[in-house]
Amino acid sequence: MQCSVLDIIIWPSKEETDNDDDDFPVPVKCRIAGYLWQFLETVTEDKLKQLVKFWVGWELPMKDMQVEVVQAAHPSSSTCCHILRLPGHYTSNEFSDHLEGCIACNDTSECTCCSASSFANGLRRSSISTAFTLSPRYPL
Q: Which of 28, 33, 67, 113 can bridge 81 by disulfide, Cβ–Cβ 3.0-4.6 Å?
């Protein structure tokens, strides 16, 4: 079975309820997820590798990559938990430029979701061989 990066991401869903604990209502989460979907469909192979590395700590996609929409100034990630946190304030015009700027510097911020944050604190997993072509439709 062929699987793409788009297929393995755990996306915010329309079935989610609007809880008081959530930063944004479901329509905002879906809009931001749509911007990410569009970005993934149009991005170059190099930018996709940068995004996956920013997201999970290395260039190989993981099967449990999650997207969260949060109150924040810029995108961040928790590499040990495979969570990409995207601000809910973006418009379609600024989303790609801001995301590309963040992934280019590869600063994921310190992982605070678990105690095993050594990968987020500088230990790199990118030494694993990545002799393949990664695209949004890369078979896993």
A: 113
